[in-house]
Design goal:
alpha/beta, 492 residues, binds pyridoxal-5'-phosphate, six-stranded mixed beta sheet
Length: 492
C-alpha cells in the first residue's frame, strides 16, 4: 500500500515520504501527516523479532517510496554499537510497572531512537530525489534534541546543522553536551529566551521566503530535525511495537491483550507515536499524557481548551518545559477526521490569541487519553520512592510519568499492564536526582555523577565521562530576533 503525505493545513498533498523528510515542514506551515494509517497485522511475530527487524517492518509501512535495501541500510547504520545494549532498548519492571528505557544511545536520551536514523533517511532521500546542494538542519531544542541531532548529523556530507537552545533553560550537563560538539558542519547557539521562543524563531525562518530564496541561490535548503519532521516520528512508533513484543515474549501478556502507556510529554511527539501505533492496530488501551508544572496539555485534554497564556515554569524536567506543543497539530488533524480548515483556524487562533477551543466531536477523539501532571515536589518524591523500593534510579522526566501513573492507578484502579516511557538517563540530571534522594549536591556535574553511581550501582555512562575534558567549542549567544543573522553568519 502506497502512503503519501499531506499538510495538516491542506496546502499540499501527495508528497512522497522521502520528499516530506527532506522538507521537514510543509510549505504552508503545516505538518506532514500520512494520508492513511497502514495496518500492522504481524503482532504474533513481534515477540521473536530483534529491534532492527521491528524498526524495519514499521518503517517500510510508512516510508513506501524507499526501497527495501535503502531501509535496511538505514536501520543497520542507525541501530548498532552506538547503543550500549545489543537490544537497543530495555524493559525493566519496577514497582508494578514496566519502564521502557529508551536512553541507551550515544547521547543517553530517547531522542537518539529517531535521530540515529534520521540522517541516514535524509541522505538517502537527497540521493533518491537527486537533490544537489546542501541541506541545512535548523533545530530548536529543549535540551536533548540538540545533542542527539548534533551527534547524528556531525560531519555527514551535504548537511549542516544549527541548534538553538534556551541559554538558561537546559541542565548544565545538557549544555555541556552541546557546546563541546565537534564537527565542522555544526553550530550551537544559546537563545536569551525560552524553548518556545527558539521553536517559534525556527518556524519563522522556515517560513521566511526571502531568506529561503536567498539561501537557495547559494545552494542551501532548510530542513528540520525536530519532531515536526515525519522522519523523526515514524522511527518512534517502532519502540512501542518492540516493547509490546517484549511483554509477550516474557509472558507478561498474551498476544492481543491490551496495555497502557504513560509518556512524559513536551512537544507531543513521543505520545503521538504511541497514538499512531494504536491506530495501526497495537493493542493500547489508554494513553497517559504526563506533564510537569507546564501543564497546558493536562488542561487541554480535560477541557478541550488549549491556552498557552499562563506562567512559564523552569523545572527539573527541562525537556518538558514547553507551552506550545507542536505535534498536537497532528492530533487535531486526526481527531477532526482530517478537517484542514478547522486545523488552520485553530492554529491561527493559537498564533494570535494564544488559545483555542476544539469542537465536541473532536473532544470525543481524546477519550483514549488520560492526562495528569506532577509538581516538582511530587516528581522528587517519586524519584525517592522508586529508589527506596528497590534501588532503581530514574531521571526527573521519567519520574513525572511515573508520578502521573501512580495518580491514575489511585483514581481508576485499572490494573492493565503499563509501560512507562523512560526518556533520559538520570546521569543527565545528576544534581536534581541527588537532591530528590536527599543526598548532598555539592561539586560539579561529574562529581555528582560519581556520587549517583555509588548509589545506583550503575556505571557513569561514557557519554558523561567523555565530556569532562572535552574542549568547549561553541560560545554563541543571541536574542530570538537575531536568529536569522546567526544562520546567515554560520552559512557564510
Ligand atoms: C524531548 C523529551 C521529552 C518530551 O518528548 P516529546 O516528544 O517532546 O513530547 C521528555 N523527556 C525527555 C528526557 C526528552 O528529552
Amino acid at each position: 500500500m502506497e502512503i503519501t503525505y499531506r499538510s495538516t493545513r491542506g496546502g499540499i498533498a501527495g508528497v512522497s515520504a522521502s520528499d516530506a523528510i527532506l522538507q521537514g515542514i510543509a510549505p504552508d506551515g503545516g505538518l506532514y501527516v500520512p494520508d492513511k494509517f497502514p495496518c500492522f497485522d504481524r503482532l504474533r511475530d513481534l515477540a521473536s523479532w530483534d529491534y532492527q527487524t521491528t524498526a524495519y517492518e514499521i518503517l517500510r509501512l510508512f516510508l513506501t517510496d524507499y526501497t527495501d535495501t535503502e531501509l535496511r541500510n538505514c536501520v543497520s547504520a542507525a541501530y548498532d554499537s552506538k547503543f550500549d545494549t545489543d537490544e537497543i532498548i530495555a524493559l525493566e519492571k519496577h514497582g508494578g510497572a514496566y519502564y521502557l528505557e529508551l536512553f541507551h544511545g550515544q547521547t543517553i536520551a530517547f531522542k537518539d531512537m529517531a535521530l540515529s536514523i534520521l540522517p541516514h533517511l535524509m541522505t538517502a532521500a537527497a540521493r533518491k530525489n537527486r537533490k544537489s546542494g546542501e541541506t541545512v538542519i535548523l533545530t530548536a531544542t529543549s535540551g536533548d534534541t540538540g545533542k542527539a541531532a548534533l551527534a547524528g548529523f556531525a560531519d555527514v556530507p551535504g548537511i549542516r546543522i544549527a541548534v538553538f537552545y534556551p541559554k538558561n533553560g537546559v541542565s548544565p550537563m545538557q549544555e555541556r553536551q552541546m557546546v563541546t560538539q565537534q564537527g565542522s558542519n555544526t553550530c550551537v547557539i544559546g537563545i536569551l529566551g525560552t524553548f518556545d521562543d527558539a521553536q517559534t524563531g525556527v518556524k519563522r525562518l522556515f517560513a521566511d521566503e526571502t531568506l529561503c530564496r536567498e539561501l537557495e541561490s547559494e545552494g542551501f535548503r532548510f530542513s528540520s530535525a525536530n519532531s515536526i519532521n515525519i522522519g523523526r516520528l515514524v522511527p518512534q512508533i517502532a519502540y512501542y511495537f518492540a516493547a509490546y513484543g517484549k511483554l509477550v515474549a516474557r509472558g507478561v501478556i498474551e498476544c492481543g491483550q491490551q496495555i497502557n502507556v504513560t509518556v512524559p510529554t513536551g512537544n507531543f511527539g513521543n505520545i503521538l507515536a504511541a497514538y499512531y501505533a494504536r491506530r495501526m492496530g497495537l493493542p493500547i488501551s489508554k494513553l497517559l499524557c504526563a506533564s510537569n508544572e507546564n501543564n497546558v496539555l493536562t488542561d487541554f485534554i480535560h477541557s478541550g481548551t488549549y491556552d498557552r497564556n499562563r506562567p512559564f515554569h523552569v523545572t527539573t524536567s527541562p525537556s518538558m518545559d514547553i507551552l506550545v506543543s507542536s505535534n498536537l497539530e497532528r492530533l487535531l488533524y486526526a481527531v477532526s477526521a482530517g478537517d484542514c480548515e478547522i486545523v488552520r483556524k485553530l492554529m491561527s487562533a493559537l498564533d494570535t490569541a494564544g488559545r483555542y477551543d476544539i469542537t465536541d466531536s473532536m473532544k470525543e477523539g481524546l477519550a483514549d487519553f488520560y492526562a495528569g501532571y506532577a509538581s516538582q515536589g511530587m516528581t522528587a518524591a517519586r524519584i525517592k520512592a522508586i529508589y527506596d523500593d528497590d534501588g532503581y534510579v530514574i531521571d526527573p522526566h521519567t519520574a513525572v510519568a511515573s508520578a502521573v501513573y501512580a495518580q491514575y492507578l489511585k483514581e481508576t484502579g485499572d490494573t492493565t499492564p503499563t509501560v512507562i516511557v523512560s526518556t533520559a538517563s538520570p546521569y543527565k540530571f545528576p544534581g536534581s536526582v541527588l537532591e530528590a534522594l536527599g543526598e548532598p549536591t555539592d561539586g560539579d556535574g561529574f562529581e555528582q555523577a560519581r556520587r549517583l553511581s555509588a548509589l545506583s550501582h550503575v556505571d557513569v555512562p561514557a557519554a558523561i565521562t567523555s565530556l569532562k575534558d572535552a574542549p568547549i567549542i561553541h560560545t554563541g549567544v543571541c536574542k530570538p530576533t537575531e536568529m536569522k543573522q546567526a544562520v546567515r553568519d554560520f552559512l557564510r
